[in-house]
Amino acid sequence: MTRPALSSCLSSCLFVFALLVSFAAAAENEQDKQVYIVYMGALPARVDYMPMSHHASILQDVTGESSIEDRLVRNYKRSFNGFAAWLTEFEREILASMDEVVSVFPSKILKLQTTTSWNFMGLKEGKRTKRNNLVESDTIIGVIDSGIYPESDSFSGKGFGPPPKKWKGVCEGGRNFTCNNKLIGARYYTPKLEGFAESARDNMGHGSHTASTAAGNAVKHVSFYGLGNGTVRGGVPAARIAVYKVCDPGVNGCTTDGILAAFDDAIADKVDLITISIGGDNGSPFEADPIAIGAFHAMAKGILTINSAGNSGPQRSTVSSIAPWIFTVAASNTNRAFVTKVVLGNGKTVVGRSVNSFELNGRKHPLVYGQSASSSCGDASARFCSPGCLDSKLVKGKIVLCDSPQNSDVAQAMGAVASIVKSRNGDVALIFSFPVSILSEDEYNTVLSYMNSTINPKATVLKSETIFNQKAPVVASYSSRGPNTIIPDILKPDITAPGSEILAAYSPDGPPSKSDTRRVKYSVDTGTSMSCPHVAGVAAYLKTFHPSWSPSMIQSAIMTTAWPMSVSTSPFNEMAEFAYGAGHVDPIAAVHPGLVYEATKSDHIAFLCGLNYTGKNLRLISGDSSSCTKEQSNSLPRNLNYPSMTAQVSAAEPFKLTFHRTVTNVGMGNGTYKAKVVGSKLNVKVFPEVLFLKSLHMKKSFKVTVSGKGPEADQNFVSAHLIWSDGVHSVRSPIVVYATN
Which residue ranges does the record assign to the Inhibitor I9 domain (predicted)? Predict the structure, then answer.
């Protein structure tokens, strides 16, 4: 055998060996398939491009299977490019290495995150608020959530004309689901599961609640078993609703491949804005975050995405919605609250929180502490009334004290007539399936002291009362806080809005609380899921007066006109701007902001360049020939034209940094704005200090230089506010400087 022949044999043998290793690896992973999202950026501009055929061809090549019916989960083909499929890790790696693929990441399950709230914000009922009803009726809000209860009066089509001509969507709600001229579109993306019908119908109540909060009809004489009685309505009652169901109890949440498909359709359907009260990990890069991906393509088409901040507060750095092209909403309270009193056997009354519609008719029942009602668990678990701990013989017919509100249903299942539970924060009223009062730690300890000092202690839990003198707005303890974990120099959340104890439409197919057998059409719910559609309603209201405004202009107008808040209104760790962003939303003021900070698609591309998104990925995401200039690659994230200014610095070391911003005149034709900085321990200089804007839409740039000593470790951050004022408008932007940990 000659040397060339030997060389050829070695090459062939090595190639065959490599194939065998590959096949072995593939076989080994055959049983480890999971759903991956293959994101391929913007759709190619070629008229002959057929995304579904292209996706099928890629899958066939990678899997080696001629039929990919059992592999392909869904295509993204209307607003951006990609697909979701069942893949092994080996196949994922092959796809991720392809030039036409931006990213490949696993599909996950994300979590879902009023009569008086709109009045509280100043958006009064009926003719007491100026409205542009013709434009409002032409506005379409896309709701990505758990579906909708189409029979609700909040979504009745009575009095509505045909859908707007721009509407490109469909009503594909499944069996026994009908749309109308209010609810103009419905789609569902939930997986096929035994026992669950394929439908856009809401089986959880969450989607109906958020949709009606944003744009539900005005419905009079609504309450939750007599609590909160009044008129339920959305921020823009004349607007149309299109629902995209991605969440279902069958999957215990919301699939990310479905979320991306919902964005794909909603953008192409021509909705005007998207509200999505869903959140996930707060550490995912943009190219692996389906909400960030979908919202980017929505922004590029002029559609604003409003997203909930998350319910993981009050801990630091828990906000999950961090992209600057997403409007991130924290949650706060209103002046209305539901309180539930506990009357002890000695006549003393302690006041707790819950939405309790049940009556014990004043009858006092024996009290028992979870710790004393267990014969099978340690003290720590028993105090919390953990599952499997309570002894029914020691609980039946009694009121059980539990150190957490999480397990009251366990007490009920063991025969308790009511429960008194402790909450470290105690600032929220929740619905339970039997009488429960949530007490603050002090009030809870009062009950424990009474029990320990009394023979045969007794108490009763009263039906809830409604009060209207609660201090408000105050950021809720559960609302996720900043700072931003991915881009430290972008302040998140952006704004806060009512999210606690909101009465809105619900679905009779979803219980109002865990273990609840009641079925209701309207219910009280709490979370940033509830604050998010409030801001969506405000954004839609604003868009009726300024239909041509871009998403960033609408976001800027809402942020710079927000009610100022302070540390005293963000208790539970005093995170201030990291709790409430620019402040509390003010719908009326937002209509006339005076100046706005606008950030276009190209500005966001430059922002991505500064984050080292270059070459192939940048072109695929943008859908054009975008490339990063040297200036863009060296740009700092804090110089994105954002309505807030934030920077991370070293602790206890001197610093000096500059923010560059540009404002656009949307107020009067000829205006002079003067700069003022308030509430600062920082040295802040603005140049120029006066802006002369001689015409509408005129732009002026300025820079803000901030210097000082880095915040001490125990203080974490310092803040100030820049206000541009022409004597009529006050354009307010937070400036936040915080220390690295």
Answer: 35-113
